[in-house]
Amino acid sequence: MQPGLILAELDGNQFLANLEACAGVYAAAMNPPEEQMPGRHTIMERHSGYAAFRAIAAIVPPAGGAPADGAPADGELVGFAYGFHGGGGQWWHDVVSRTTASILGSRAARDWFGDSLEIAEVHVLPSYQGRGTGLAMMLRLTAGRPERAAVLSTMDANTRARRLYRGLGFTDLLTGFTFPGTELPYAIMGAPLPLPGAPARPEPDRPSR
Known about the structure:
By secondary structure, the protein is α+β, with helices and mostly antiparallel strands. It is built from 7 helices and 7 strands. A hairpin with an 8-residue loop joins strand 6 and strand 7.
């Protein structure tokens, strides 16, 4: 990760306090149509209330020193990632696990989604991409999680994000997957936990070396 950046862990309330900054990173990284942003904002707000929610923020600290724990508003938020325990009644979990069961069988669906950390968002400002920030956030996000596996969806293309996930041990569970309401092809990926290189438990917030 770029020297000087700090990773801070946020709970649901701290994430909500910084939701506007996170939405700004999402918009810069994904460049979605402007009319989609209110819906994305609502989705992220809802996710923050899910079980075992954890968010990681990548922060450029202020000139006076490191921000307080869980307070990225004291610096510039340049990346974020979050996930939570996947379960029945969650839209993504239900759609993906049901399709997995129909294609790969109910046992495979239980193995991957029966006890899973759903990684919902991983984004970095374009000017900070390619410097290890996404990798560092993924390792911190998954550190010490009790779930059996981590699962996520990403564009079904040879993107930087997909290469990152593959390097962390994620494999394709489904490809060419289309969510209801969109024609874009996605890949559903999963990896056993802990991820290779992940610490056994979250480390205290500190500047990278």
